[in-house]
Design a protein that fits this description.
The chain has helices spanning about 25-35, 40-50, 80-90, 150-165, 215-220, 235-250, 270-330, 330-375, 380-385, 395-415, 425-435, 435-450, and strands at about 10-15, 60-65, 70, 100-110, 115-120, 140-145, 175-180, 190-195, 195-200, 210-215. The chain is elongated, with a radius of gyration of 35 Å. Helix 1 (about 25-35) packs antiparallel against helix 3, helix 4 (about 150-165) crosses helix 6 and helix 7 (about 270-330) runs antiparallel to helix 8. It has a six-stranded antiparallel β-sheet, with helices on both faces. A two-stranded antiparallel sheet has the order 5-6. Strands 9-10 form a two-stranded antiparallel ribbon. The chain is of the alpha+beta class. Helices cover about 50% and strands about 15% of the residues. It has three domains: about 10-270, 2-Layer Sandwich (BirA Bifunctional Protein, domain 2), CATH 3.30.930.30; about 285-375; about 385-453, no CATH class.
């Protein structure tokens, strides 16, 4: 396994207000995120989520806004719900049911601050059954990551909350209802419940503490937020800026994270979708490794066959030399007769040996190619190539140009520029093994042409 890299990022999920408020939605979220406050919640959510380790729920912590610029430990989730309700009542204009009234942030502890426990969880199928390795048939597993230092992890999470409340959440620290740490799952993380409400610049004198919703100003497109040219800034552009600022801030604080974006940047999958994708990727990787192993075995068999062909040729050359020696000892008359017939005999013998060798080679290669063609291209690779980059360019088109370049390089390296004609399936096999088998075929053809010269 390569060296782990740390990434600083947050994930944002929005909850609409609903026809009569979203207290029920917030209650369900808090029952899960602050489950350690109630043993029944721990048991119930562990039954739903196999990644939860109930014995580690004691490591979790919950915080509610104390209304004085800080946070304190709540006795129940009701305190967090009541704080959110009080904030919503201060919004001057009526919140319609489709407007976002709650923002849920999730921040994971970087892998560079974790210790890996390998093969901790079984990988499961959608029906709950164990996922089996497609090559070995054995149950597959996945790792669990735990904080290497609990106090260090809490300092990281506090820094994350400070950054989000001070530079991302439009209402500042007051808009954070509460947050909780979850050290009892596959990766330590926090869940932060906030709202998009901020002080209303048009607050009336009798309601100086009135609020207004600024979700679009912070995370979407709004006429009040423009660039240097007076153009409205889009929601995705704002989120990219928020994420970049978050990364730069955590790097500046000295946390072991990279300033570059992670591979999953911009891929907002739900937790079940992400876990299912990771399971599928692990299965595809196992299948690919199995295919590579089989290809190596087949390549070894082809190499062994080529060695046997070389031995046959060496034996033929030795016999030809022996024939030359005997010929020199024959009387002049017999030598003349042999000279007249030698070329014909040699040609017939060579053609017979060559035909037999070619037949054996064709059979071996046919068997090898049939096995190779039967190996499926991993579905995830095909799905990836059918996607487009942010500019709308197809990844498959770029990949095909890369393959053309490698084929041109292959022709130059093997001296077949302009002469190489690919048969059906040759290009796909070239993509799979980088030209290893095609190179063997070209080498064999060069060798056979050498026999006839």
């Amino acid at each position: 396994m390569g060296e782990q890299t740390g990434h600083a990022a947050f994930h944002l999920k929005n909850v609409p207000h609903g026809a009569s408020g979203n207290r029920a939605d917030r209650r369900a979220i808090l029952h899960e995120s602050m489950r350690h406050l109630d043993a029944k919640d721990v048991k119930r959510h562990a039954a739903r989520n196999p990644s939860i380790v109930p014995a580690k729920a004691r490591l979790n912590a919950a915080f509610v806004n104390d209304g004085a610029g800080g946070f304190r430990a709540p006795k129940s989730i009701k305190e967090v719900l009541d704080y959110g309700d009080a904030r919503a009542k201060r919004v001057r204009r009526k919140i319609n049911e489709k407007q976002v009234a709650t923002n849920l942030f999730v921040v994971h502890l970087p892998k560079t601050m974790c210790v890996e426990i390998r093969d901790y969880y079984p990988r499961l199928n959608a029906d709950g059954s164990e996922r089996l390795d497609p090559v070995t048939g054995q149950p597959m597993s996945r790792s669990r990551w735990v904080a290497r230092d609990h106090d260090e992890a809490m300092r990281y999470f506090n820094d994350a909350v400070d950054r989000l409340s001070g530079h991302v959440v439009p209402g500042g620290p007051e808009a954070i209802h509460g947050w909780a740490t979850n050290f009892d799952e596959s990766t330590p993380h926090i869940q932060i419940m906030a709202d998009p409400f901020a002080p209303d610049p048009k607050a009336p004198e009798d309601r100086p503490n009135a609020l207004r919703t600024e979700h679009n100003q912070a995370y979407g497109s709004h006429r009040e937020v423009t660039d240097d040219r007076g153009r409205q800034i889009s929601g995705p552009a704002k989120m990219r800026d928020h994420q970049a600022g978050f990364r730069q801030h955590m790097v500046a604080l000295g946390w072991p994270v990279q300033e570059e974006v992670s591979e999953r940047h911009g891929k907002e999958l739900s937790k079940p979708e992400f876990e299912a994708a990771m399971d599928a990727a692990a299965e595809a990787k196992a299948a690919l490794e199995g295919a590579r192993s089989r290809a190596e075995v087949n390549s070894a068999k082809v190499a062994e066959f080529n060695e046997k062909v070389a031995e046959i040729r060496s034996e033929f050359d030795a016999r030809s030399a022996e024939l030359d020696e005997r010929e020199a000892a024959l009387p002049r008359m017999r030598r003349r007769i042999i000279e007249e017939t030698r070329d014909e005999v040699r040609t017939e013998c060579y053609e017979a040996e060559r035909a037999a060798a070619k037949l054996r080679a064709d059979e071996a290669l046919k068997t090898y190619l049939e096995r190779l063609r039967a190996q499926p291209v991993p579905r995830l690779v095909e799905e990836y190539l059918d996607r487009t980059d942010p500019s709308g360019r197809s990844y498959r088109r770029s990949f095909e140009r890369f393959v053309d370049q490698r084929l041109a390089q292959f022709e130059a390296e093997h001296g077949v520029t302009g002469d190489l004609e690919l048969e059906p399936g040759d290009r796909e096999r070239f993509v799979e093994d980088g030209g290893e088998r095609l190179g063997a075929e070209v080498t064999q053809l060069h060798r056979e042409r050498g026999y006839g010269e």
